[in-house]
Amino acid sequence: MSELSQSSDRPAVCYHCGAVAGSDPVEFDGKVFCCHGCRAVYEILSRNQLCDYYQIENTPGRVSTLRQTGRFEYLDNPAVAEGLVERYGPEMAVVRFRVPQMHCSSCIWLLENLQRLDPGVRGSRTEFLKKRVTVRFHPGQTTLRRIVELLASLGYEPELNLSALTDVPEEKVDRSLYIRVGVAAFCFGNIMLFSLPEYLSSGTAEAESRTFFYYLNLILSIPVTFYSASIYFSSAVRGLAKRIINIDVPIALGIAIVFLRSVVDVLFGYGPGYFDSLTGLVFLLLIGRVFQIKTYEQLNFDRRYEAYLPLAVTVLRDGIASQAPVTSLKPGDRVLLRNQEVLPADGVLMSERTDVDYSFVTGEQHAVAQERGALLHAGGRIAGVAAEVELVREISQSSLAQVWDSWPRSGEGKTRLMTLGNTAGKYFTIGILLISAVTAIIWMQVDASRTLDAVTAVLIVACPCALSLAAPFAFGTAMRILGRRKLFFKNAAVVESLARVDTVIFDKTGTLTATKTKTLQFEGTPLSEEERTLVASLAANSAHPLSRSIVDALAVPSTTTVEAFEESEGKGVCGRVGDIEVRLGSASFIGSSEEERFDSTRVHLAFNRKPRGSFGFETRYRERIEEVLQALGKDHELHVLSGDGPGEEQRLRTIHPKFASLLFRQSPTDKLSSVRDLQERGMAVLMLGDGLNDAAALWQADVGIAVAEDVSTFTPACDGIMEASTFPALDRLVRFARTALGVVHVCIGVSLVYNIVGLWFAVRAELSPLLAAVLMPASSITVVALAVGLTEWRARRKGVI
Amino acid sequence: MSVLWVLVGFSILVAAGFLAAYIWAVRSGQYDDKYTPSVRILFEDRNNSANIDESERTEGSEEDGDAEDPVR
Question: What pTM was estimated for this model as a whole?
């Protein structure tokens, strides 16, 4: 009876999306499609002569997600539309969407040709790296809803969530750093040019022309000192105000002294000043800053909980279902949630029963069965039959918002760990001041008139520019290398913090375990091929997540027809296949005497009322987990903080026997205080987690990394985002961060050698402008080359790239 | 030597012009997205050739998979 799908050498591939078309391909217009969704998109495009889409890239398509009309009805609501659309007069409106499905050149092309599909659209622009589309349209000729429906029908459903309405508008992009670099480069280049006669002449050139160039250089150095370098002055002042001598203090001091000394030299005719060194130094320092910035524009490290909530839900008013924006919900409203929809606020279940998946909010692995009258918490995802919920709290008063706002946050960021910049800055400043003082005292005895000369020379040459370039270039390179391995950091400083970490805390669900892949184990005599087909056929008729998993896991075609199919909500399914009655469900549903167990989800199976066994879903841990934990455990203390019950404790202990602690049933606040306790014991903590329940701990930890199966989906606020597939390489990546710190130390050693050479001239008041102009860039360039080169080389040697 | 002053003046003016152009380019956001324009420039505006294109494609749909990709 069962038909196996035909397997040929080259299976037919869907013309639209490239998926294998399978046993039941859809043919249209001489092309093969895997489903009607793909065919529908092709039809729209071919009708509008937009088939270039398939020419730019092969099989670029995504499956259309516009299943039922009315899903975007809420976009007609003026309150929602107003929050999303910017209006420019009566004929022009602009809306900006994030479209995570955007992935190739074809996407760009199609999304920029929307006006050919909807005449009301005036034009559209994509920003590929940000995965963003900006659509300009005529509000009289089309509506926001029509545009969103068009995009969804093409398979590019925009990301619409509550944060679009509650977020403060994006800050203006800060482009001033690039302008600072430009100004410094311009002045630096011209000063070098005008200093050429000075470098070449043997002192016989006309005095008049030489002073002219000196003054020109003086004028050109003013914007560099007061505009380009101003960030160093403000950073130094900010540091001192907090009683921290950061690395910018000696730099700002150096810049100020060089400038003042040079101005005095020129004005009083003592010499040409050090303008070339000064501007070159500022230029290089700023280049270091630019290098340090590497933004992963498709990622968002500062999401709030609103980004997890939908923009609208179905509200039942007087028995009529309509879509309403989430912001308009009040306690007492009754909402209807279908499978996979998220509850925006706490509420009481009014329908018979349903399953709620809290894994993202609390870390509990399995969906919880809820009966009528149960209190459901915000953030729960319905997994199974649709539920009617009467809201009892405002969104901002609900448990999700409480979890989110339960810990104090300052805008300061993490400054707990002593960074290299801060420690080095302190010792450097003290060192320089000591040497200058000694130099001053000695010169006072020998030749008081040259004291100032020698002291300023010391301050100029000791400027730790090479030192401050080492960290940005080494960590910046490391950050790019880690980014290639799908571990993305907010900024380069996180690499340094990661190198200093000595404690690692893991969340269990979704971090150590893979959420999507659970292995299905059958308890009882193994099923024959025929029996598996029976079960798969029955389960295929049900939309319950457990049935779906069973169908997927059995991996047999479910083509046998089922008669008298019946689904009892929350209990199980039964049906007749041929002359056998198959039942799948809870122990009581199939008539088994077995006690229900609480440690794992079980689905019992019976043929003709005779219990046959049960399916259990076993948690699957990530690949290489033993090796990763073993390697990390060598020089880190390992902990597990799980929101789930202790069912997996035994298995975790067998995977890695040396956990310092394994704590279960941890609330978000428990996790936060655990991290804090460890920090108070002087530990530097790396926290890995995936859900909202880890958000507080991720924020408190010295390094918080969110683990995500797909990095463009919602992740809690964190310092870094890691794609789950990178987990097997975690130990190597952490070790690599330590290597990068080692590279910085080497670079500091090298730059100190240059500084000592310079000081040797400076204390004897023999530092000529030419010598300074050679020595200072030489040390900076050596350090930059070393930092980048060594980091890349170590990464290759360690197999990180 | 007086020609020198004139030349120096000119060279600074020219360089300052380039600096101004750079600042304008940064301010107007030309460096914000460095990827999409590089793809966009490769798209041909094929509004009028769309019909011909379509008939070609239905005839030789077999070759579609191996067709030369204009972007890659």
Answer: 0.78
Q: What is the pLDDT of residue A212?
A: 85
pLDDT in tens, A726-737: 999 999 999 999
Give the residue ranges of DSSP H helices in A268-387: 275-292, 359-362
Average pLDDT, integer, range B42-60: 48
Interface test with B, best of A51, A52, A96, A106 (most B CBs within 10 A): A52
pLDDT higher than threshold 60 for residue A34: yes
Position A372, amino acid = R
Report angle CA A734, A738, A742 to the nearest 5 degrees: 160
Plot region of A181 (φ>0 → left; ψ -120 to 50 → alpha; else → beta): alpha
User: With an 8 Å Cβ cutoff, are B72 and A55 in contact?
Assistant: no
Q: Which of B50, B57, B71 sits opposite A105 (nearest CB)?
A: B71
* CA B22, chain centre distance (Å): 17
Amino acid identity, residue A189? G
Backbone angles phi, psi at A7, to 5 degrees: -115, 115
pLDDT in tens, A541-592: 776 667 767 777 777 766 667 778 877 766 788 888 878 888 888 777 777 6
Query: For residues A131 and A111, what is the distance between their CA atoms, to the nearest angstrom?
Result: 11
Cβ–Cβ of A128/B53 closer than 8 Å?
no
CB contact under 8 A, A15 and B64: yes
Quick check: B32 and A126 CB within 8 A?
no
pLDDT grade for A10, boundaries at 50, 70 and 90: low
Cβ-defined contact of A179 to B27 (cutoff 8 Å): yes
Whether A97 and A85 have beta carbons less than 8 Å apart is answered as no
For an interface test with A, give the residue of B3, B32, B51 to mutate (most A CBs within 10 A). B32
- State the SS3 of A477-516: HHHHHHHHCCEEECCCHHHHHHHHCCEEEEEHHHHHEEEE
Chain A interface, mutation test: which of B2, B5, B7, B8, most A Cβ atoms within 10 Å? B8
Helices A275-292 and A465-484: crossing angle in degrees, nearest 10, is 20
Q: Touching check for B1 and chain A: CB below 8 Å? A: yes
Instruction: Give me the residues of A, 22-51, that contact B with CB < 8 A.
Output: 29-31, 46, 49, 51
- Of the candidates A789, A795, A781, A792, the residue with the CA atom closest to the CA atom of residue A287: A781
Q: Contact A639/A663 with Cβ under 8 angstroms?
A: yes
Q: How far is B65 from chain A (nearest CA, A)?
A: 7
Q: Which residues of chain A does B63 touch, with a Cβ-Cβ cutoff of 8 Å? A: none
pLDDT tier at B55 (50, 70, 90 boundaries)?
Answer: very low
Quote the strand ranges of A622-669, DSSP E: 637-641, 661-663
Distance, C-alpha A104 to centroid of its chain: 21
Considering all CA atoms of chain B, what is the largest pairwise distance in Å, rounded to the nearest integer? 76
Exposure letters A476-503 (e unless 16+ CB within 10 A, then b) = bbbbbbbeebbbbbbbbbbbbbbbbbeb
Rounded Cα gap, residues A461 and A762, in angstroms: 7
Q: What is the pLDDT of residues A184-205, one digit of tens each?
A: 999 999 998 888 877 776 555 5
pLDDT computed for residue A686 by the predictor:
94
The answer to whether residue A415 scores a pLDDT higher than 60 is no
pLDDT of A312: 81
Residue of A31, A108, A194 with shortest CB distance to B36: A108
Is residue A247 within a helix (H) or strand (E), and if so which, with residue range?
none
- What does the alpha-carbon distance between residue A476 and residue A792 come to, in Å, rounded to a whole number? 11
- Say what the ipTM of the complex is: 0.73
For residues A767 and A453, give the distance between their C-alpha atoms in angstroms, rounded to a whole number. 9
DSSP string, A685-739: EEEEE-SGGGHHHHHHSSEEEEEESSTTS---S-SEEEEGGGGGGHHHHHHHHHH
Answer whether residue A408 shows pLDDT above 50.
Answer: yes
